Every structure is written in structure tokens, then in C-alpha cells.
## 1
Amino acid sequence: MASVDHSIEKHVKPYEPSFETMVPTPLVKFLRTCILWQIIRFIVINIKMILVVSKSH
Amino acid sequence: MARVVVMGAGVSGHTAATFAKHWLGKEHEVVVVTPNSNWNWIPSNIWVGVGEMTKEDVVFPLAPVYEKAGIIYKQAKAVSIHPEGKEGSDKPFITIEYTGQGKEGQTEEVTYDYLINATGPKLNFDATPGLGNGQGQIGPYTVSVCTADHAVHANNELRKIFEKAKAGQKQKILIGTGHGMCTCQGAAFEYIFNIEFEARRAGVRDNLEIKWISNEQFLGDFGIGGLHIKRGGYAASSKIFAESLFVERGVDWIVGAAVKKVEEGKVHYELLDGSEGTEEFDFAMLIPPFSGVGLKAYDKAGEDITDKLFAPNGFMKVDANYTPKPYEEWKASDWPRTYQNPDYKNIFAVGIAFAPPHPISKPAKSPNGTPITPAPPRTGMPSGIIGKAVAHSVVDLIKHGPNAKLHEASMAEMGAACVASAGKSLTKGTAAALTVYPVVPDYDKYPGIGRDLDYTFGEIGLAGHWIKHILHYMFIYKAKLKPGWTLIPE
Ligand SMILES: Cc1cc2nc3c(=O)[nH]c(=O)nc-3n(C[C@H](O)[C@H](O)[C@H](O)COP(=O)(O)OP(=O)(O)OC[C@H]3O[C@@H](n4cnc5c(N)ncnc54)[C@H](O)[C@@H]3O)c2cc1C
């Protein structure tokens, strides 16, 4: 099961601002550069951007 | 025959000039006055600043493009505007001083029927002692990525830091804003994460301490008062996403800071609570505050009317509501729609050159009275859209007469798409792809968060990087007026 990545934990310190935010899980980090998933996201983001661009012109 | 004069060939001016010429054809003249010989795709300066692109990748010469388009190009800087003409002539004109084309230093009067001011920002380094050199240029202690040449220099300095880190020396990098009233936090955000990415690639990350310093009240404000994004059933603040990225990448931050003084290896700053601090650095990139470029204006009798055309910060007054009022009373309708000067109807200002009615972020001051508030950004997409809308208005005024309806492009009614790079690599790079609608929050229409959650969106990943890379080529293609350029949106 995905837990907080230790490489991330190393930057989080209790009672400091770093403790008060969210940190990505290994799955989220993996998906960010997973080519297949990112191809899908590429299409989705482009559609969303085209919608905003066409609403703004 | 009418003559349209465009001052400035950056994002907004180039867009305005090229569309105006495209729509007006041979019957009318379009003149561009700009001091630079090259066009620069400024967003990619970030990649020049980390050595991932060269200056040549991000600039191209303007002269052949304007020649092909039939635009008259004067490599010169505009100095003054004379909207009523001069003694003996009612014809309005500007004065210019050449910076190239073999006429360096020569001055000339250029008459116009319509004038578009697209002169962008003056990089006001001297507003912070030590950030500038006292002569309007960047000082010796910090670097910048605001121009392609600055970015080349920044990369050269960064390489020296990486070399020292490689040799085992601990190095400290400080990135952010160099004054309490800066804008353009997005560019600093991109630069800090590109450096962090490159440091990991170079195997020197462990010897680098990387820190952020900015005038935002909270991380993720970006000068637009932050934004909310739908995620996991919540509308979550950009503060959470920004802080998350900073923690993940091991980047510490100071916010609510006005940098007051820069010395060799050290900045002095004041915080919103009035306390003061210093931060040492081996390498610092601090964005300067922006002001207008210092154009003057004179009436027919030669009297100085600069205050009539320009706001005190040097940006040109347009159809905005400039009545000073508290943050709680700001309205989306304060923002300009046509960018026409209220006194001289044949003058328009586009992009960074127009005076915004007020900031977008909530203003704040330290107890000592130091203003610490991001100035409102006018990023590439709004600058391009405004440039095109004004070109359209001017073309209609020429073709259909002075009663033609002006085209509108309010930043309170348009969205912006922005892709912020966090590391450049075809397979391992990432960028935050963001859309925000509208750019200026409208709290009457969207109570609480000010934005339409269906059109305000953001995520970080490789797809964002691909988009950023494609946009680099697409916008340079468009700016070169290659086939189909008019179909590419701003
Ligand atoms: C490092 C960096 C990264 C950025 N990244 C992004 C990004 O990823 N996405 C985004 O949307 N925006 C980005 N921006 C912002 C974007 O560059 C600006 O929004 C845009 O350039 C504004 O366009 P403009 O035409 O108003 O000004 P500019 O593009 O600055 O153009 C101004 C022009 O006026 C000329 N000029 C100056 N003085 C005179 C004079 N006296 N007479 C005649 N001409 C004059 C200048 O030489 C220049 O050609 C970035 C900015 C920086 C600094």
C-alpha cells in the first residue's frame, strides 16, 4: 500500500511549516512522470485549456 | 491612408502590430518602434538560465519578419508623446531615438493617427539599493532571468555554484522577489524549481541549500490573490499545493518579505510583522519591481502633461476606474475593457504598459509602513489577447469611423492558461499546468473564492512540461508569422 515516501519525510519536520501541508504519496509521484498516464493527462489538460482559451477570446 | 504606430515589440505589441497589419492590408501603414533588434520568447528565458536552452533558441531577428509583413520597423526607443501635435500642426506625433539600423542616437518625429503603447515594464532594479547598479541596470550581487542576456549570465554564474558544490562546498541559493512591490512571482517559482531539478541531475543537490523569499502574503498567491482548485472532493487553496511542492523538493521559504537592501552575499529584508532579517547567499536571482518605461508627454504648447497620460508608476492611464478605495470595495468592473486613454481617444495601452486600477492581491503594510504587496501580473495570454483586441478596435476605427464599437478584453472577464516549468526533461520533467478564470477574481459573481471552479484548474506532471515545450515552438512559429499563424490563439 502506498505510504509517504521516505525521501519526502526527510523534508518534513514536526511543528514547522513543512508539517502543515500535504505531501504526495509515492503513487502520485510515480504518476507524474508515468508516460502512459501523462499521455492521457496531456489530452485532458489540452481540452481544459482550449475551453478556457475559447471562453477568453 | 491611416498610420498606426505601435511602441514596443514584446508579446502584446508584436501581437497588436501583426494583427493590425494583417487586417488593414496595404492601404494603411503600421509602424513598430522598438529598441530591440530581436523578439524574445521571454518564458523560455528560464531554461536559458539553467543552461537547457541557448539565447539563440529563444530570440529571432525582427527585421525580416516585419519586412515580410509590410510593417515599417524603426529600431528605436520612444521618448515622448505629443498627442496634440505642436505649434503649426495638429498632427499628433511621438519622438523616437534610434538604437540601431545604423542611426544610433539620431532622433525623429513619427506622426500617427492611432498610437498603441506596448512598452512593457522598466526593470526597476535601482528601487532596491544594491539590486541595481545605480544606473538603471542590474547590480553586481544578484542575477536576473528577465531578458535573454540576463539569463545567459545567470546560467554562467549558476555553473560556478554547481562546480563548487561538486567539489564538496556547501552553497546557498536564494530566489524570489527583490522588493516589497514586485510582480512576476511565477517566473521566480519556475526558476527555483528548474535549479533544484538541474542540481539533482548534476548530483550536487545535497550540497545546495535552496531558499525562496517573496512579497506574497502566502505561498501560492502569485500576485493574483491565490486560487482554488478542485481536488479529491474539495476546493483546495493554491497555498496548499505550493507549500506541498516546496516541501517535497526540500525548498524552504520566507514570505511577506520586502527586500530592502542587497550586499555582496547578503540580503536585508523586512517582514509584514515589522521584524527585520538577513539572508546570506552564494547565488541569488531576485525579480526587480516593474515600473513604466519613463515616456514623457507634452501638449501643443510644449507643456509637460505626463501626469495626464500616465499614472505615478509610469504606466499609461486607460479606461479603468482609478478612484482609490479600500480592498473590500474593489470590483471586477474597476478593470479596463477597451484600453483606450480617457483623454486622447486615439491612444491605447496594452500588456504591462497599461496602468491597472489597483493590485489583485490584498494590500498589506508592515507596522513601519513598508508596503508588502505583489503588483498585479499581466502574463503572456492576457497581454496577447489585449493586444489583439486593441488592434481590432483600431482597425475598426480606421475602417468604419470614430463611432465604431471598440473591442473589449477585461482581465476580470477573461481566463489565463499558464504553464509553470518545474524541471526540463522529455521524460522526467514536470510543469504545473494552470488555468484560472477569471484572472481578476470576481467576488460578486463567485462569492468567497472569486473564480469559476469549473474553469480554474491545475496539476503538475510531465504532460505540463510537454505542453510548455510545445508552446515554446508554437509561439515562436506564430511570432515569425509562418503559415497559419493567425489560427494560433494568444
Ligand atoms: C522570466 C520570465 C518568465 C515569464 N514566464 C511567463 C510564462 O511562462 N507565461 C506567461 O504567460 N507569462 C510569462 N512571463 C510574463 C510575460 O513575459 C509578460 O506577460 C509579457 O512579456 C508582457 O508583454 P508586454 O508586451 O506587455 O511586455 P514585453 O514583452 O516586455 O514587451 C515590451 C516591449 O517594449 C519595448 N520597449 C521598452 N521601452 C520602449 C520604448 N521606450 N519605446 C519603444 N519600445 C520600448 C521592449 O524592448 C519590448 O520589446 C514571464 C516573464 C518573465 C520575466
Note: The mean pLDDT of chain B is 97.
## 2
Amino acid sequence: MNAAIEILMNGLFLGGLYALFGLGLSLIFGVMRIANIAHGELAIAGALALFTLSADWPVSPLLLMPLVCAGAFAFGWLLQAQLLNRVLSPDPMPALLVTFGLSVVMQNAMVGLYGANSRSIDLGAVKTANLTIAGQTIGWLPLGIFLLSLALFGGLHLVLRKTRLGRAVRATSDDAETVALFAIRRRRIFAVAMAVSAACAALAGMLLASRSSITPFSGAERLLIAFEVIVIGGLGSIWASYLGGIALALVHVAGFYFDPASGLLYGHLLLLVFLLIRPQGLAGKAVTR
Amino acid sequence: MTLLQMQKLTARHGDFQALFGIDAHVGKGETVALIGANGAGKTTLLRAIAGLGTREAGQLTFAGQDILAQDPGALARRGIAMVPEGRRLFPSLTVAENLMIGGDVGRRGHWTLPRVLELFSEIAPMAQRPAGLLSGGQQQMVAIGRALMTNPELLLVDEASLGLAPVIVDRVYEALSGLKARGTTIVLVEQDIRRALAASDRFYCMLGGQVSLAGASDGACIEQVSQAYFGENQ
Ligand SMILES: Nc1ncnc2c1ncn2[C@@H]1O[C@H](COP(=O)(O)OP(=O)(O)O)[C@@H](O)[C@H]1O
Ligand SMILES: [Mg+2]
């Protein structure tokens, strides 16, 4: 019984993090209809940047995370405005190839700067601090991450539903040509989406790197998690990513509990099951375009 | 006063030339019909006026100013709005949000969300529903409403009646004549020659990317227009 509660809770907490990571990929796909192959490298780059910053500044890495997110936001914006917006066309292939090239370049640059060693982010005392509710021990960190992810999803939901910018983003996602008639510049919307996506990737990347170690080559693994989140959850709404993140994390946590040698495998199997049986995902609409 | 003026306007889609030197003008407050068979270039012309799409040459002025090189957003802010062919609503946005997208252009004027919902009272109960779920006629009203929300001086309407039941078409044209009464200048593309002539002050008939006939709609000879519409050898 206790094991079941533990798995559920850990799955839920980790799921918020997965969801955040998947959200970044889903946002780009939703708005621009391209898959960003460099999404995993953005996560790794965020973690490595945090590594460098915390070597120089003797404060908790948690405090430096907003700084890295701001950097990732700016990087995402520039990436879209200076590079991806130049290769926009009805054919998704050129943009896909550019993101693939970017992932290779970023990986090589990271190997050059950081070497191939594996490392992880040490969050210090926060990592082991916990509280006890109804006899159940809960780590502050996973709980905090879960609440943060909920808050970020809630915030994004409100921005998308209640603001003029959010309306423009959703309209662009529906019909990127017609928005021009209403003075909405799709290139700017795309840049906003990529900036938010990169910030999500960096944040998730830093937090994931505090749970398990990374190397500059870990990007592909991370990308796979994001893909699994959006295939399992489905496209078309940010809460679909949330559902997908939690489902995937539950399977990972349960997998590691019962079969520590191959926990991730069960996530891949879940991906296969969804691709075969419910390709639109848990909450997604069937993609027709 | 002339609001819109075209001189020797040409446009091409890639290597394909779709407009061959259009000379036309639209006076302030006028309703002008563009008629012509499929492929005549009507949509290309409307899109060129709205700043969408093709590579153009020649002269295009709006309220006396050259707008040939302006982007659609700038033209929307200056008062050119389009109801596109096929309506092109944002299907996942609600009806109200679709209308608000027009309002977001930022031109103040008569048209506000409540007023548009009053004009098209049949879509008011659906204001909070995704626009993609509406019927074709309701979607057409949203598309017109969305353009009105920009408070345009010039309204371009591309085949508003396509695929709609006759009652709905009457409803749409009734709304357009109401707009004319408010002083809005309208250019409308319509396949149905009689309806186009009935709704307009003047017409241009297009054939193969050129104006084949132009004149006053009142008393236009249907046979002559039909010939201009289909070409000489039919
Ligand atoms: N995007 C495009 N690319 C290439 N050719 C086009 C495109 N759009 C329209 N055309 C061609 O331009 C001509 C005029 O089309 P259009 O303006 O849509 O005519 P209409 O609206 O009068 O039916 C047609 O021959 C059409 O095939
Ligand atoms: Mg047409």
C-alpha cells in the first residue's frame, strides 16, 4: 500500500517536470507545425549553463535558475528571429533540418566547452529536506517542482486564454496566413513561442539534471522524453502535455521500482502502445493537417 | 472622391501571371462588384489590395497614398479589411474571440463586439463556442463581423455567398447594404451576376486577369455582361 502511494506521488511530482519539458516541444509544434529536434540540447545546455554559473557564484543553484531561463528565453527568441524564420515555408522539411543541424552544432559546442564527462547538479540541502504528511514522507524539492509546474501551466493557460497575446498565438496556430489581415505578425508570434519553449526546456533540463547525471550527449534521450510526453498526452492543448507528462512519469517511476535495471524501457513501451492504439494521445484531437 | 485607385496593376503567382494591367477605381461610399468566372483573377486582385501574397507592379493607391508595397497589417490599421474566400475563421477560437481578433487591430469606430452581435443576432447565442463548429452561414457572418471589428473604411468581400442557402445569402447581402448605408466602401466578389449587380453601384467584369467590361450596375445588360464574363466565343 505504501509502495503504491509512493509510486503515485513520485510519479505525479516527476510528471510535472516531464510535462513542462514536453510542453515546450508541443508549443512549437502547435504554433509552427515543426518538430524542434534541438529541444533536448536546449535542456542540456540549460543544465550546463547552470553548472558554469554556480561554479562562479556561491549561491544555491535554485536561485540561479531564473537567470538561465531568461538566457534561454533570449536564445530561443534569437534562434527563431535570426534563423528559423528565414526558412519558413509550407514544407516543414527545411525547418526540421535546421533544428537537426542546430542540435548537432549545440552538442559539439557543449562537448568542446565541457568535455564528455557526466555531471549532475547538486542542489545541496534542499535535495534531502522533507516533510511528513499523514505518515507519508514527502521531499520538499519534488513537491516544490510539482507546484511550480502547476503554476507555470496555470499561468500559461491564463495567458493563452485571457490575453490579447494569447489570442494572437492561438489564432496563428489555427491559420498563420490569415492573421496577417489583422496586423498580427506571425514571425513575432513564432519568436515568442520559441522563446517560451526554450525557457521551459532549460528549466526542465536543469531540474532533471539534479535528479540524474547528464553529458553533452544526453540531448537525444531528453528529446525522446518530450516526444513521449506529447504522443501520450496528445497535441492541441497544454493540459494534454500535462496528462502525458504524468502518465509517462508514473510508468517510469513504477518501472524503476519493480525493475530498476530498465525503468525507462516501460516508457518506450507505453509510447508504442499509444502509437498503435491511440495515436491522438490521451487528450489530443486527431491531427488532420 | 476616389478611395481606391488601380493603374496598370499586375500580379503574379511565381511564374504565373494572374493580373494583366488592371485599371479600376472605387469611390468613397460606393459598392463595387467584381464579377467573373473561376480563375479570372478576382481573388488575386482582392488579395493584392489587402497586401496579401503576390508580386505586384503598377499603381495602387488608397486615400491618395501609394500602398503597393505595404504589408497587410499596416493596411488593416489604415482601414482595409477583408472577408477572405472560404471565410478562413480561426476554428479553435470562440466566435467572440474571432471577433476580438478584428478588434485587436486597434481602430476605433462604430463597431464593437456587442454591436456586431446585434447586427448578426443569430450568432450571439454562440459567442462562446469554437467558430469551427458553426454552420457555413453562421461562419460567414462571423467572418464579416471579424472584418467589421477592424472598423474598416474599405471592406473587401470575397464570395460571401459561396455554398450558402439562399435565405442566408439574403441575410448576408442585407447586412452588406446596411453597411453601405453607414458609408462603408465595399468591393465584393460574386459569382452570381444578378445578385452582384443588384447589390452594387458599379461593376467590373474580369476575364483572364483583365477587366473585360465595366459600368454602372443599374440597367446593365445581362447578355453583354455574360459575354464579358465567359469570353467572346461562348
Ligand atoms: N497561389 C497561387 N499559385 C499559383 N497560381 C495561382 C495561385 N492562386 C491563384 N492562381 C491562379 O491565378 C489565376 C487567378 O486565380 P484567382 O484570383 O483565384 O481567380 P478567381 O478568384 O477569379 O477565381 C487562376 O488561374 C489561378 O489558377
Ligand atoms: Mg476566387
Note: The two ends of chain A are 45 Å apart (CA to CA).
